[in-house]
Design brief:
Rossmann fold; alpha/beta; 18 strands; globular; five-stranded mixed β-sheet
């Protein structure tokens, strides 16, 4: 109900009116997945944005707070020169928030005494405004004079208060007597177990076979009288057979088993995104819908909330149509709770660029800047399938460019078992770093991208997957390293063309780069002279420029590194299927060294 917390956000007037993320965040306020029980917004309205103060330039509304009208939040405009009015308004705002659990805004109208920074001289651009400000005696002086006039304090008492305050600061004392230095918030997590853990730390991610079968039974048990859509009913039926070992596991079932096993182990799970309940590509179905329900808000069933008695929460949220605000919210959530699996899923990986500020300034660098550890998972659907430039690329190169100091993990699983183990590894391993999963689209239903229950029971996440189709490594003249779905296209072309002298090895973790596993593959194919990096993306994108030096570090003296990829392009992908097919075939031909 939000009674145990008090969210307070501080804004500048120009930013509150000018930054789109403000509107996006306000839109979260009364939603089920992101409501905080009301937030108190305090706007430090110094009536200037950098060097812009003319209202004809700074905004299109009368007040900087008018954007808050979209959620009917009350706004209190108060003179910053009147401390008693400020205190009174603050009390009203807090009472409103606690009573109605809704957002409230305080517009603290004041001024900026000095420039924007130490080098800024505001008289250059605001001579009239700053001529008035320089004549202003200051809020502290005017309020002290008022109290003296009213007989509240004596003539020298204000100066005495200032002296005592400064002496306390110089001595390092608390100047606010109400601060509880020994207070321990009840919801504060213990981060000590997650400090100084190397990414190579081994943690078992397998789950016993009997447990997997029992979890599968729970995942496919539907309440009597609950009417499933015919397509979903078939999916649940297939999952029941998968759990019994009758048919191979697909991605949706492996992912569900990962969540179910983590819930059984005591880890809460939170997933949000624009299609997270169903899954953009119709594969997850974490929320089932009764086709005979009579009301829109009724008739849903979540199998993952019914795994074991007394289990932790499983929350799945179909978010508002926003990337920046929602990802920012989930980042904050993950920095506060290391023991919960927090996932943000982009509808398509391409759309994550709408949240680039959150990615650059917080996810990639929050730990090194502020010591804020975070185990957030980002799922970014990626793959070149002829859907055009806005539905093909999660921009792998951008995330790799942000990688340093072991600040993130970037994984590209190509089998359901790999997805199962990477999700479990994120929690059972005491290592909390953001995990970027370059997730699949077409592979979700690929007949060869399947796994067995035994791979979930006995396996682990493999940063490198060896070639299992080439029996004699000594016959390989060429070794192709790749990531993602193109592996299956390369393998199919190799079988079709009989290119038995070409080995294909999957690199399933791009960062931190798995040097030891990679070096082991190079040693296996020590007789091969040609080493090829193959990717679907253009040469100026994808992983090539970020991992080329890693690959070269491990080559043997007689080996030469080349590449197979699309030509560099300003656009991630072509917009015509025929053009896509032509370019994809050219990449595969270059990788295998044969024309098909």
């Amino acid at each position: 109900d939000g009674k145990q917390v008090l969210p307070i956000l501080l804004h500048g007037d120009a930013a509150f009116a000018g930054q789109g993320v403000v509107m996006e965040t306000l839109n979260l306020s009364q939603t089920r997945g992101y409501g905080t029980g009301g937030t108190v917004h305090v706007i430090v309205n110094n009536q200037i944005g950098f060097t812009v103060s003319d209202l004809r330039d700074v905004r299109s509304t009368l007040y900087c707070t008018d954007i808050a009208k979209m959620i009917d939040a009350p706004v209190f405009h108060v003179n910053g020169d009147d401390p008693e009015a400020v205190a009174f308004v603050t009390e009203i705002a807090l009472d409103y928030r606690m009573e109605f659990a809704k957002d409230v805004v305080i517009d603290l109208v004041c001024f900026r005494k000095l420039g924007h920074n130490e080098q800024d001289e505001p008289m250059v651009t605001q001579p009239w405004m700053y001529s008035l400000i320089r004549k202003h005696e200051g809020t502290r002086k005017s309020y002290a004079d008022k109290l003296q006039t009213q007989g509240v304090i004596g003539d020298t008492e204000a100066d005495d208060m200032i002296r005592v305050y400064r002496e306390a600061l110089d001595a390092g004392y608390h100047t606010n007597k109400t601060i509880l230095s020994n207070f321990k918030p009840p919801y504060t997590a213990n981060w000590a177990p997650f400090l100084n853990i190397p990414w190579t730390y081994k943690a078992p991610t397998g789950v016993p076979m009997e447990t997997l079968k029992a979890l599968s039974e729970r995942l496919t048990t539907i309440p009597s009288g609950f009417s499933l859509h015919s397509r979903v009913e078939k999916i649940i039926g297939d999952r029941r057979a998968m759990g019994q070992g009758k048919i191979p596991l697909d991605w949706g079932m492996a992912e569900s088993l990962a969540y179910a096993s983590l819930l059984k182990d005591g880890y809460p799970i939170r997933i949000s995104g624009q299609d997270s309940g169903r899954g953009t590509f119709f594969h997850r179905h974490a929320v089932l819908h009764d086709q005979n329900r009579q009301k829109g808000e009724e008739g849903t069933y979540l199998p993952l909330r019914n795994i074991v008695e007394g289990q932790p929460d499983f929350t799945v949220i179909d978010s508002i149509l926003s990337e920046e605000a929602v990802l920012g919210f989930e980042y904050g959530y993950a920095t506060a709770e290391p023991n919960e699996l927090v996932i943000w899923e982009a509808q398509f990986g391409d759309f994550a660029n709408g949240a680039q500020v959150v990615i650059d300034q917080f996810i990639a660098s929050g730990e090194v800047k502020w010591g804020r550890i975070c185990g957030l998972v980002m799922m970014l659907p990626h793959g070149y399938e002829g859907q055009g430039p806005e539905h093909s690329s999660a921009r792998i190169e951008r995330y790799l460019q942000l990688c340093a100091d072991y600040n993130m993990q970037i994984c590209i699983p190509t089998t359901p078992a790999q997805m199962f183990h990477v999700l479990r590894r994120q929690m059972v391993r005491p290592y909390r770093k953001p995990l970027i999963i370059i997730s699949p689209k077409s592979l979700l239903r690929h007949k060869e991208s399947v796994s067995s229950l035994s791979e979930l029971a006995d396996g682990e996440y493999l940063p490198v997957i060896a070639d299992s189709e080439l029996p004699d490594p000594s016959k390989a003249r060429r070794v192709v390293f790749c990531s993602g779905k193109i592996y299956f296209e390369l393998a199919a072309a190799r079988r079709e063309r009989g290119a038995d002298e070409v080995a294909i090895v999957r690199l399933e973790q791009l960062y931190p780069f798995p040097h030891e596993s990679f070096k082991e593959q190079i040693s296996i194919y020590k007789d091969a002279k040609e080493i090829v990096w193959c990717q679907e993306e253009p040469g100026n994108q994808g992983a090539w420029h970020r991992i080329q030096h890693y690959i070269e570090r491990h080559l043997l003296p007689h080996q030469k590194l080349t590449y197979a990829l699309r030509a560099s392009s300003a656009s991630p992908a072509g917009g015509y299927v025929a053009l896509h097919n032509q370019r994809q075939k050219a990449v595969i031909d270059a990788a295998l060294g044969t024309a098909g």
